[in-house]
Amino acid sequence: MFHHQHASKMLFNKNGIGAAEMKSILGFIYASSTFENLATDIELVTDEMIRLIGIDLYSEIESFYQSEHFDTQPGVVTPEEGAPTPLQTWKIWKELVHHTQLPIAFYAYRNYASHADLTHSDKGRQIFVSEFEKPAFEWMIQRDDQSLLLKAHKLTDRLLKFLDDHATDVKIKSTWTNLPVYAASKSNLISSAQVFSDIFPIASSRRFYQTVLPFIAEVERTRIIPTISQANYDSLLEFIRSRSTGNETETLLHMVRIPIVLYTMNIAAKRLAVEILPDGVFQNYVSGSQTMKARNPAAMEFKTEIAKVLEDEANQAMTALQQFMEKLSAAALGESFEPEALTSRHSKDNQYFRL
Hints:
Blueprint: H1 18-25, H2 35-53, H3 55-66, H4 86-116, E1 119-121, E2 124-126, H5 138-165, H6 170-175, H7 180-185, H8 193-199, H9 206-228, H10 230-242, H11 248-271, H12 292-332, E3 346-347, E4 352-353
Antiparallel strand pairs: 1-2, 3-4
């Protein structure tokens, strides 16, 4: 296993068959496409993949791909009682190589295609036009670009799910489940991509969930713990781990999760590139016929608008949480509690709600 260093080779082109590998994954490209043209983009995307799954796990995947075992199915042997057979392990790692290659190929080709549409000559950048071939319209390129990105995101989520589903494999367990990002998902109140998606639709994307884990931690640290107390926060974590249901703690957990998710999406809207966000949140708000020139200024304006809406909704959810905590405190003291109506904070002169 490699430790804390960049792998020396990529997860493609073993025995010089890189072009055939890319053609098998990207069926729409020409079989004659030169692999060398994609090599740099593959290396850049591989760096991103390493940041997502960790250098140790990636190095194990790459080492298996480059080894002689990758192309040779092991023979049938009798394993120790309860142990996996070499064939079972081999099949897992063959699939893991494939699951890792898929998103890398789509992300890399998307990056490559953005400049391959132009011819770079001594006269500068030009487009190729002939009697039989013409450049695609801007909206066509935009639609295809979005399709490639969406597929790459979905394939990344499939890879992460595959890792979770096979976390009992010795090497996957030692490299994947020991990652800080894996541990982080077990130590916050939004304990999975599905929990996040139940409140804000992200198609249960583990890729996006991992991306915003630092934002979730920031929201819990700066907003939630000061509101509910460290003791209550720790109690909710234990409640999640014990998988208990059906009591007042479950109600509190639900009320806490809503502002966490909304504030997290507010931060994501302000800090992340549009391409990283879940499909449908920002990408599809303009018609396909708009040009790139028109789209870019609109993107910033729309992101700001959405961020403000998310913040307003998060503030309302936080107000509801604060009132719930006040109700619990009053009940503990044997007192009654009447929540303050939002209309009591309404200014008839300035037409706003003070939150």
